[in-house]
Write a structure and sequence with these properties.
Radius of gyration: 22 Å
Strand order of the largest sheet: 4-12-11-10-7-5-6
Distance between the termini: 44 Å
Largest sheet: 7 strands, mixed
CATH topology of the largest domain: Aspartate Aminotransferase, domain 2
Number of helices: 15
CATH superfamily of the largest domain: Type I PLP-dependent aspartate aminotransferase-like (Major domain)
Shape: globular
CATH architecture of the largest domain: 3-Layer(aba) Sandwich
Structural class: alpha/beta
Helix content: 25-40%
CATH class of the largest domain: Alpha Beta
Number of strands: 16
Length: about 450
């Protein structure tokens, strides 16, 4: 343990860095963890403390740190080719990865367009859908997008336009294009004041009407299937996604599914779409694609959309979009190593068992007077903390309840990161049942400790 080294690194960080989604005025007064290494499902700081990686290093780490199969794949690729442009050239790992991605994806997708992260994967999806209709005979009027409130699709301008989280997006509104926005189908805070199952899935009725009314102008509907992650783990009611697919197909509207957070086993299926047998026209993936090793993303689409961009050179039907590091060979190798583990192990079966263990472990929190809702799909869970449970009233933001709970959990050797006052648990798929139980116990303990010290709301 070298406290002088840790403090030196903190000071150097504060002198030169600007961290994402971080209030830097608070950071400058804080004593942040300095993470030095990872091993298995754990992270270690410069003082030698070990922490369970309870949010998979922001939802990307599927199979733990320093996983041999992924390490070996990256090292082998490094001996061959670290990078080559993908503009007008190709290379073996990108070809092999595209084949394996399409084999794992919902059937009917046939083309892979690589990029660097989830935001760019969604930016590509939006531009692809727009240009497709512009180049399709009679499709010029179809330029609008149907989106959900509370959506999060990334931080580039197009993906922010499709987003709906005011806290993140309001300030950029003058830069954005407008969309046709539907209230998110969120049962705990139903925008229509209804409840399941007596509602009869009224939210889906409204969605179908919107698609039919606007079909002549809609290029695509955009959704995070089953789980709206950044909004606080909001769960779509069963059947909504399938009905969205049916009505968009009926009305000739493309369906874009953002599986950046939900893909690669997180929900208990390879992709969240699989739970309802949905095949989108465009599918965006990132995060877990490389097992948390390297930045890589992909936008998958159908042959019909791909062929809409073919033509003579002078017609300029080309998709003029790309990135310097598109299809980076090291990233592709990491992704191939990651996907190989799905073939070697019963990952989805394990997620099913771990999901049940998490649900059981979290059940004891349901009676807590400040726990408003516990939402879970697979190994994605959110615990919403409220000031007044019957009224579903939130704590004032200045109380920083979620942040304090996450900080408290570190005392039990767990790293978690909240979304406001929703405590998010998203452990690696390689976790053991004991680790899942310990994670849930640590989160529950931290919630009780923080709230027992919290004074009355008013």
């Amino acid at each position: 343990m070298d406290m002088n080294r840790t403090e030196s690194l903190r000071k150097r960080d504060k002198a030169v860095l600007w961290h994402p989604f971080t209030q830097m005025a608070d950071w400058e007064k804080d004593e942040p963890l300095v993470i030095e290494r990872g091993e298995g499902n754990y992270l270690f700081d410069t003082d030698g403390n070990r922490y369970f990686d309870g949010v998979s290093s922001l939802w990307v780490n599927l199979f733990g740190h320093r996983r041999k199969e992924i390490d070996d794949a990256v090292r082998a690729q490094l001996d061959t080719l670290a990078h080559s442009t993908f503009l007008g050239l190709t290379h073996p790992p990108a070809i092999e990865l595209a084949e394996k991605l399409l084999a794992a994806a919902p059937p009917g997708l046939s083309r892979v367009f690589y990029s660097d992260n989830g935001s760019t994967a969604m930016e590509i999806a939006i531009k692809m859908a727009f240009q497709y209709w512009r180049q399709k005979e009679g499709g010029g009027k179809k330029a609008a997008f149907l989106t959900l409130s509370e959506a999060y699709h990334g931080d580039t301008i197009g993906s922010v336009s499709a987003g709906g989280i005011d806290l993140f997006h309001r300030i950029f509104r003058p830069l954005l294009f407008s969309t046709r926005r539907l209230p998110t189908p969120h049962c705990y805070r139903c925008p229509y004041g209804l409840s399941r199952p007596s509602c009869g899935l009224y939210c889906a009725d409204r969605m179908e009407k919107e698609v039919r009314d606007a079909k002549d102008h809609l290029a695509a509907a955009i959704v995070e299937p089953l789980v709206q992650g950044a909004a606080g783990m909001l769960m779509m009611p069963e059947g909504y996604l399938a009905r969205l697919r049916a009505v968009t197909r009926e009305c000739g509207v493309l369906l874009v599914c953002d599986e950046v957070a939900t893909g690669f086993g997180r929900t208990g299926a390879m992709f969240a779409c699989d739970h309802e047998g949905v095949v989108p026209d465009i599918l965006a993936v990132a995060k877990g694609l490389t097992g948390g090793y390297l930045p890589l993303a992909a936008t998958l689409t159908t042959e019909e959309i791909y062929r809409g961009f073919l033509g003579r050179y002078e017609e300029f039907r080309t998709f003029f979009h790309g990135h310097s590091y598109t299809a980076n060979p090291l990233g592709c190798a990491a992704a191939l190593g990651t996907l190989s583990l799905f073939g070697k192990e019963d990952v989805l079966g394990r997620v099913s068992g771990l999901s049940a263990a998490m649900e059981k472990s979290l059940a004891s929190l349901a009676a807590h007077p400040n726990v408003g809702d516990i939402r879970q799909k697979g190994l994605m869970a959110g615990i919403e903390i409220v000031a007044d449970r019957p009224a579903k009233e939130r704590f004032p933001s200045e109380r920083k309840i979620g942040q304090r709970v996450a900080r408290k959990a570190r005392e039990r050797g767990v790293i978690i990161r909240p979304l406001g006052d929703v405590i998010v648990l998203m452990p690696p798929l390689s976790s053991t049942e004991k680790e899942i139980e310990d994670l849930a116990d640590a989160a529950g303990w931290a919630i009780r400790e923080v709230l027992s010290a919290e004074g009355p709301l008013r």
